[in-house]
Structure formats: structure tokens, C-alpha cells
Amino acid sequence: MEKTRLPLHLCHELKTDLIINRLYMFFLGTALLALFYYRTTTLSHIIRTRETPLVPHLLVFISELLFTFLWVLHQAFRWRPVTRTVYPDRLPGDVKFPPIDVFICTADPSKEPSLGVMNTVISAMALDYPPDKLAVYLSDDGGSYLTLHAVREAWKFSKWWLPFCRKYELQTRCPGAYFSAEESSDGRFISCSEFMAEKKEIEVMNDAVDSSQQVMPILAYVAREKRPSRPHHFKAGALNTLIRVSAVISNAPYILVLDCDHYCNDPTSARQAMCYYLDPEISPKLAFVQFHQKFHNLSGHDLYDSRLNYYWRRWLGFDGLGGPSISGCNLYLKREALYGTKNIKNDIDLNHLKKSFGSSNELIKSISKNCELHLSNRKLTDAQAKEVGFIYFSVVEDTITGEYLHCQGWISVLVDPPSRPCFLGSCPTNLSDTLVQQGRWALGLMQISLSKYCALLYGRGRMSTLHSMCYAALSIDPIYVVPFYVLAIVPQICLIRGIPLYPKVSDPFFIVFALVFFASQLKHVQEVLSYGDSLMSSLYELRMWMMKSASSYLYASLGAVLDKIGLHTAHFTLTDKAGDDEQARLYQEGRYDFQASPVLIAPICSLYIFNVVSFVVGMARIVQTKSGGEMLVQAFIPLFGVIVNYQVLEGMVLRKDRGRISASVSLLSAVIAIFVLCFGSLIFIY
């Protein structure tokens, strides 16, 4: 009885971070008010006297307003950061565990190798969870026979692998990770002859049947029809199909969503999620449990900020305000929250449900059953599952069209990574894939911001103001491209032309600008270090933010606007997970791989060349006119960008290896930089 009274999870408020964050908000907010006072008085003086061009001052002021607006939104993440602890050992017996469906999506075996996909599938089947309450669904949007064949082989192999994992209580249940790792995790069995004999036997693929005949999870392969005349919604459409297929087979009340390259590294993740779902106090309002994304192919340098810790640090504050947003994968989702059955009355006409859930009678029946019972039973018995093996489906698209309002009133939680990450995926190891991935994410976020679901508007009355600010800050992050480009171009042109945009060193307001800059940078460093990362990580994050703003955010923002007005259709580009030996070598050595489309690289190189030229010419002008006091800030801005991104100069001039920036891209970038300089100089005359 004492054990049942112990909490299954605890929430810890990060008091020290909370105090530091709120002090930072107060002091920097005060400095920003002083900065805007300086700007407004300066602009009013220029309008009256016309003694200096108005346009550059106005552009810089607008960019500072945008920076401040985004800064204010991001402070919601810092308001109440929390961490959580779960106690799976306090859970009740397996008989009380609800069923779980696992959704895995793949689309192209050339970019998502089938071997990696099957490792993810098998690791999900091997979760430390009752196998009769587990069903794994693989969506293959490519409809590849290679993937289908790989699923069949994975099913055969799992008949040997799963009993082996359970018998020896393996922690690493992804076959690829297990056989490529050292023997440390299973050291207690190394001297056991039976263990070594069984280990050698599963290393060989054969058609023999497992004699133990243990209960196996359901494994289903799903390939859906995609009609050219109808949008198929990429991964969202694939998940929608899996929801429909699983509803008429297993209809589990909880769904684990995985990317095809994110395998289950800790088999206890399902039990950790149940620490929340089996808590009667939080479960009725809990929509999903989000786990961190961790990666197995990181180098010690993390040049491309692939750890994504910038986002996970914000998620700690997100969690303290009502829960984080869905992060794409690695989450346990409640089917009831997705369907919105809280809002469905038991006596509702089932035909009315077809307006939201499509015309499938079988799906409507499963929704009705889920609505009435909330915890539905499996549609296949264990004996049937054992007989079927794995199931093949070819699905005709029939979408669920439910509105987001179904999720109103729900909360979510973030499970902090223990010493062993629950899931491990593969991250981009070159600049091209990183910029493409970030651009894809940014495009989706901007599309949300430009829709009726913009968090600042749609979130009113549906969530707290601070929670709504978090969603807004996340979705409009790509807008950073506007102030970034303004501050990467305008002060530099004015530096060359001798137009001061900032106060002199002797002016008291100079301290205000210096305080805003250094306080922001020091706060970033403090957050990086307090999260457990190195000082160099703060530099990598800053550099990648500049590169994303120059390239990914630029194209994402333009694409979202054009898509909104009907002049462009958004496309989904897969991140290549196949890997390349040369790329991997450069990544491990800590050198950037600049081999990417000129469309991605040219904006970065153009801005770099432009800032180098403006700094050199501007400094020559300062020395000649002895105007260092009033032009110091404008000289510092390009110098800061040049130093932070010195690898770009190295890639254009010094490097001779495959990862260098090609001469054609460097030449194109120089032409663009000269054009921007000339065009900007003409505009800023006025």
C-alpha cells in the first residue's frame, strides 16, 4: 500500500535559473526602453533638420523594434523553467498497462536506408512493454519493394531477437547499435557460454522459426495511395493514414511517434511515459509526453548545432507553462486528445462524425468505441497476431479533417533525458543538409504564423498568455531574417559613407547599446554553460543562427509568403540520412563542408564579403577622417560578423579540400556583394 502512495513523477522548478532570468529581463528591458528613447529623439531631430539621411536610421529602428518584439516573446520561455523526474519502478503490474501503437514513417530508401529503418522497427518491437499490448506500424510513402522486403526480414529476425533481449534484459535493443558497440552493457553475461552461443546465433540471418513461440507485437507495413490531383500532406498525411489503419486493427489509446532514423535506445521509455498516463491527477488532461531528441552520430565539435540544445533549453520553460509543443517525433500521444472525443456526446449521430473523420465506417466505429470506453481493446487476439506475422496494407487516402480546437484544454509534459537517452537518431553532418532541414522547419512554422492558427491570435482564450507567447516565439522565429539582413547591410553602407547611426563613445547612450549587446551575449553563454554544454557550443550556436538567418530563414519566409498568396506551392525535401564517408571525415575533424547548392551558400558568402569590404573601407575612412568616436559601433558590427564566421573566409580562400567553397560561388557572391553596396549607397543618399 505504501508503494501505491508514492508519486510516479515529480516536477522541479529551477529556482536559480528563474531568478537569473527575471533579473535579466528587468535590466535588459530597462536598457531597451532607454535605447528606444534615444532612437525616437534622434529620428524626430532628423525629421526636423534633415541634416542626415532618414532612411538608414528608420530601417535600423524598425529592425531593433522587431528584435525587441521577438525578445519579449522569448522571455516567456525563461519565466518558469522546470525539469521532471519519473519513477517507473513504482508503476503497477503489466496487466494494468494500456496498449500502445507505434508509428514509424519512411519515404525514400535512397535517403533513408532500409537497414536503419529496420533497426528502428525492431527496437520499437523490443520495448520493455507487454508484447501483447504493442503494435508497430511502418508507413512507406515510397511504396518501395526494398522496404517491404526489409520488413519481412525484420519480422523473421525479431522472432530471435526479442526473446534474446528479454531473456538477458538487454539495455541496447537496436540490433545495429548493439552489435557495433563494445561489450560493456552486457559484461555480466560475457563469461556465460549460453549467452555467447545465443548471441552468435542471432548474428546470422536464417529462416528458422523461434521454438519458444513467445507472443510477438503486431507489425504492419502500410503503403498509401497518393493521387496527383490531391495533396497528400507528406509526413502529416502518412501519420493520418496510420491513425486510420491502426484504428481498425489495434486501436490502442496511446501512440508512440518515431522518425525512421530514431531508434529506441532505452527500452523503458514506454514505462516512463506511463508514469504520467497512469497518474489519475494529470492523465485526464494530458495530451502527449514529449521526449528529447538525441543523436548517435554527433562529433565533439557539433559544428552545425545538431544537438538542438537551443530548442531543448527553451522547452524547459515551455514545460513550466503548460507543456511543450510536439517536436516531430519521440512522443507518446493520447489518441483521445487527437480525436477530440471529450467534445463528442455519446448519443451523437455516427454519420455526423464522417464530416470530420472521413467516410470509413470501420474508423467511425472505432472512434465511437474509443469515445464510450476511452480504453479500447485490441482487434486481433494474441493467437491471430502470432499467426499473421506482419500485415501488409495498401491504403486509399481518406483524411481526417478535425480542427485544432480538439486539443483545447489539454496539456503536455517534457521528460528530461536521464543518463541514457530514450531515443537516438541521426543528425545532419554537413552544411547543405542542415540548411535544408532548418529551412523546411522554418517554412512550416511560417505557414502556421500566416494562417488562422497564428498563436498570438488563435491562442487567446485557449491557453495562458505566456504559453501563447512561447508558441508565437517558436512559429515566427524565421522573421529574424528581416532585422538580421538590415543590420548586416545598412550600418556597413553607412560606415563606408560616413553616416553615423549610433551614439559616440563619449555619449552616455553608448553605454546603453553596449549593455544591450553584451548582456544578450553573456546571457546566451550562461544558458549554454548551465545546460551542461561547453563554451564553444555558444559560438557554434551563434554562427549557425547567422547562417540560418542568411539562408534558411530567407527562403522559408519568402516561400511562406508566396504560398500564402498562391504564387508558390511548398515542397517537402527529405534530409539525406544515407551518409558520406568524406562528409563524415570533415565533420569529425571539425571542418565545415561547404559543398551545397549555390542558392544556399551564396547569401552567406555575399554577406561575408560585403562585411569584410565595408570593415576595411570603413576603417580606412575612420583613420583618414579621425572619426573613430562616432563610428566605433558601426565598425564593430561587421568586425563581429567577420570574426564569428571566419570559417567562411577559410572556405573561400585557404582550403583546397573537397569541402571548400567553389570559386564560382565565391565569384557570384562577390558580384552580389558589389551590387548590394552600389544599390544601397544610392538609396541611402536620401
UniProtKB/TrEMBL annotation:
GO (cellular component) term, any one: endomembrane system
Subcellular location: Endomembrane system
Domain of life the protein comes from: Eukaryota
One GO biological process term: cell wall organization
Topology term for the membrane: Multi-pass membrane protein
PANTHER family named among the record's database cross-references: X-BOX TRANSCRIPTION FACTOR-RELATED
Name of the featured protein: Cellulose synthase-like protein G1
Organism (species): Sesamum calycinum
